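Hey, I'm writing a tutorial for new members on how sequence and structure tokens pair up, and I'd like a real worked example in the thread rather than a made-up one. If someone can provide the structure for the chain below, I'll link this post from the tutorial.
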Amino acid sequence: MITNFDFHSHEPRYNSGLKQLYFILWTMGENFPLNKTFTNADLRRHESYIRQAYTDGKLLMAALFENGNGFITLVEAENEHEIHRFVRSNPEIADKKLQARVKPCKPIFWKDFSLAR
């Protein structure tokens, strides 16, 4: 089961240097338990993996879909090879309980964003 992250008890270590930002959509894989959602399936290994990414300063944001059928993360990585290695290293991906789609993206800082562009 995915529980609420206690981000206050884990201070992230931020790496220096320019990073690429990636959006990852985590959804149910072919071996996801039947009649379960992200809120009631045993996904402790995934939760631990994501928590470690936060502690390491890679994970910027995570959110669970309201209906419990998916999860998104924003993760920083040096390049596409690194982000794909990050996804493949998730134990729930290896077991096909989860699947993931990765999209590179770039941040928009709203205070600097002008609609007149």
